[in-house]
Request: fold
Amino acid sequence: MVALKKSAKGLITQGEAAREIGQSERNIRRPLKKLKSKGDRAVVYGLRGRRTKRKLDEKFKEKAIKISSGEVYADFGPTLAAEYLGDSHGI
Reply:
């Protein structure tokens, strides 16, 4: 963040900022552009405080936990359990 601010003010070059952060010069340009337009909020994750679109409903989660906690699925790993839940139960 400090390196980006220095680069935005012109105190150091984009290349120097990239080396400080451990990125390539090309990967610094987008954060610099966001920093100039949004200020300090540019480094905060965009979905912070909001629910992700990929999250499943709680009823599906509870149903999957109830089914997978049975004796049939006791020795299954997560991948195999997910496959069986998808094939057998439509989850």
About this structure: The mean pLDDT is 85.
